[in-house]
Amino acid sequence: MAVTNARMWQSARQRLDSRTLFLGIPVVVVAFLVLVPLGMLLYSSFSGARPGDMGALTLNNYIKAYSRPSTYQLLLNSLIFATGSCILTFLMGTALAWFCERTDMPWRGLFYTLSVVRMLVPGVLGTIAWIFLLSPRVGLINLFLKQVFGLEEAPFDIFSLWGMIWVESVLLFPLTFLIMSAAFRAMDPSLEESATMSGSSTFSTFRRVTLRLMAPAIFSTLLIMFIRGLESFEVPALIGMPSRIFVFVSAIYTATRYQPIDYGIAGALSVSILIISALGVFVYGRLTRRVEQYSTVTGKGFRPRSIELGKWRYVVAGIFAFFFFITVGLPILILMWYSLLPFFYAPSAEALAQVSLDNYVKVLQWPKARQTFINSGVAAFGTATIVMLLTSLISW
Question: Could you report the per-residue pLDDT of 283-332, keeping only the tens digit for each?
Fold first, then answer.
C-alpha cells in the first residue's frame, strides 16, 4: 500500500512539475517583459536619471510637467486625437465587417484581401503617402480639386489635428475590420432571427439585438483603438510636429531627442499615458463586468443569417470599392509613382519622361541593402513567432 501511494505521489508530482514548467515559463517571460520596463519607466519618472543610472527619487518631474500650461494642451490634443481616430476607425471597420459578414454584398473576398494589403504597408510609408495626397501645397488630391473646381485654396489640410485623425484612422481600420469580422462570424444569430420573425426591421434588429450581443467586442475594440491612438508615433511625428501640433508621444520624443534632454519630463508624460490607458481598461471592465448577460456563441453549429440587400447589393459594394480606392489604392499608387522619379513631380505627360527604375537599382547597389533585408526579415519572423507562442500559451 505504501509503495502504491509513493508511486501515485511521484506520478502526481511529475505531472505537476511538467504543468508548472509548461505554463510557468510563459508567465515568467511575459511578467518580465511587462513589469521590468514598467518599473524602469516609473523609476525614471521620479528620478530623472538616464536609463540605467541611479538617481535620487523626487516629485519635481511631475511638478515641473504639470505646472506648465503646455502639458494640458498636450493632454487635450492627445485625447482629441486618440478619441477621434478611435471612433472613426471603429465606424469604418465595423461597417465593412457587418456588410461582409452579415449581408450578401458581392466582392467580399476582394475587400478582405485589400484590408490585408493595407496592413502590409508600414505606417511611416502610409503617412508619407497621405502627405503627398493631402498636403495644402503639393497634395495631388488638393491640386486636382483646385484645378477642377477653380478653387483658390486647398480644400484639405493634412497638417491639422483632423488630418492626423484621418490618417491614423485609415492606417488602423483594417485591424478593426478583422476583429469585428471575427466577432460577427462567431455570433449566434438565433436572437436576430427571432426578432426578424417577430416583425422587427433590419435596422431595429441591428440596433436592439446585434449591438447588444456585440457589446463586449465593441468595447474591447474601442479600447484597443483608443490606446493605439494614444501610443501612435508615425502620424504625430510626420504630420503633427511640422505643424506644431504636439501630443504626449511626440512631446516625449522631443524631450529625449533634442537638447536639453529631460528624461524626467519624458517619464512623467509616459506615466500620464499609462494612467489614461489604465482608466480605459477600468471603464471597459465596469461596462462588461456582467459577462453572463452577453450570449454570442452556442454549443450547436450554426450559420449566421445573411441579410439580402436586394437592388442595393452593388450600390453598397461600389461605395466600399471607392472607399478602398481612396484609402488603399491611392496611397500605394502615389508611393509607386514617386519611387520611379528622381525628384518630386506631379503626374503629367512631362513627368512620364522621367520615369525609370534607377531608384530601385540604387537600392540594390547600396552596400547595406543585403544586411537591411536580412535584419528586417529576422526581426519580423522572430517577433511574430515569439509573440504567437507566448500569447497562445497565455490565452490557453
Answer: 877 776 665 455 554 445 555 567 788 888 899 999 999 999 999 999 99
CB 192 within 8 A of CB 205: yes
* Residue 240: closest CA among 5, 80, 26: 80
Burial letters for 47-58: b for 16+ Cβ neighbours within 10 Å, e otherwise? bbbeeeeeeeee
Determine the length of the chain.
396
d(CA 341, CA 351): 8
pTM score = 0.84
d(CA 380, CA 393): 20
Helix (H, G, I), strand (E, B) or coil at 366: coil
Interatomic CA distance for residues 167 and 134, integer angstroms: 10
Per-residue pLDDT of 372-383, as tens digits, reads 889 989 999 999
| First-last CA distance in the chain | 38
Burial 306-330 (b: 16+ CB within 10 A, else e): ebebeeebeebbeebbebbeebbbb
What Å distances lie between residue 298 and 147, 187, 188, CA to CA? 57, 8, 6
Inter-residue contact 208 to 121 (CB < 8 Å): no
DSSP letter, residue 292: G
Alpha-carbon distance 221 to 92, whole Å?
Answer: 12
